[in-house]
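User: Here's a protein and a ligand (zinc ion). What would the complex look like?
Assistant: Let me lay out the input and then the predicted complex.
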Amino acid sequence: MKIRAAVLNASPVAAPYAQTKPLAIEELELAPPGHGEVLVRIRAAGLCHSDLSVIDGNRPRPVPMVLGHEAAGEVVEPGPGVDNLEKGDRVIMVFVPSCGHCAPCSEGRPALCEPGNAANGRGELIGGGKRLSANGKPVNHHIGVSAFAEHAVISRRSLVKVEAEIPHEIAALFGCAVLTGVGAVVNTAKVRAGESVAVVGLGGVGLSALLGAAAAGASRIVAVDLAEDKLRIARELGATDTFNAADPDVIDRIKAATRGGVDHGLEMAGSVKALDLAYQITRRGGTTTTAGLAAPSHSLSLAPVKLVAEERTLKGSYVGSCIPLRDIPRFIELYQRGKLPVDKLLTSTSGLDGINEGFDALAEGRTIRHVIVM
Ligand SMILES: NC(=O)c1ccc[n+]([C@@H]2O[C@H](COP(=O)([O-])OP(=O)(O)OC[C@H]3O[C@@H](n4cnc5c(N)ncnc54)[C@H](O)[C@@H]3O)[C@@H](O)[C@H]2O)c1
Ligand SMILES: [Zn+2]
Ligand SMILES: [Zn+2]
């Protein structure tokens, strides 16, 4: 079938995107769903920094590619072999498909699925190959989803069925920002009631972590960003203390305010500078968790003696160490009960035509989540 999609034809592309237009709205051919795949009508797709990192070259991926991985939609046609989804079912996309039987999958860590991540790296679906093409030439899928399009063919292994009738533009946020941010707090860091938390980097992912920390019963929630606007929003969402990362004395000031540092330092900015800050403000014996995706060539320097003699833990968190089939329904229930006000993260919406302007807003920190609605 013919679909309209936002295609990235080259990378890196420099801002301002309203002028350079890295994403071109084009007509593509979408093949029918293969075995274990589903044709989905995309209803909402959020703009995440991980999409922006493909555009600006920080996270190189093969082009041409249809970006977009934080999304919600409706099943149009379950392909052969899909017997547990029906036309009209509401689904949320997960950006790592899980095969269900590789070593990480079998130990309950689907974010690390080996064939899933390998397919993502090749720009293919986990079933192999590409279902998107332009004038007979294949177009790459973005981490199994490619949601900046009217329709998508997606593996069943990338989909979570949602029973709750929540608006699509809210549902989409659960697929990446909420899964990553709340999951990092409750699954990776395992924050317990009464512990103190600091979040460095307050975009959709970091503010989700902040909401997760509040829901988990953190005693202190320190929020850190370079933008004063983000600090103001963080206070509205439950931060107990806010600090600007540009302040040259920021580390000393946070340590003084928290009697030596926080139990959990979380890095959600995607930069080594932010990770270093999160590490420095974690107390002796505490845990630093990083979910931001810094450029692959960047590295962190740390003194191992400090790790040893101060019994520190440094952890990475991918897809919030979540089991999406378990955690998406849980997090939605928390949202419905008012414990996780995810709707506060939705700052603006547009059609596909507003996508380049939306990425300018994300790059300049003017939006938390801009969502494309279709
Ligand atoms: N681990 C995962 O599974 C996963 C999933 C989604 C996104 N990510 C990554 O998480 C990061 C955040 O994504 P997002 O969509 O929330 O991004 P965003 O652009 O909306 O937010 C990033 C925030 O970090 C702030 N920031 C930048 N440098 C900083 C510094 N040195 N100190 C303090 N704050 C700083 C920015 O001002 C901004 O508010 C990105 O790197 C993204 O690629 C990871
Ligand atoms: Zn994302
Ligand atoms: Zn697997």
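Summary: Residues 98-99, 102, 104-105, 113-116 surround zinc ion (ligand 3) (CB under 6 Å).
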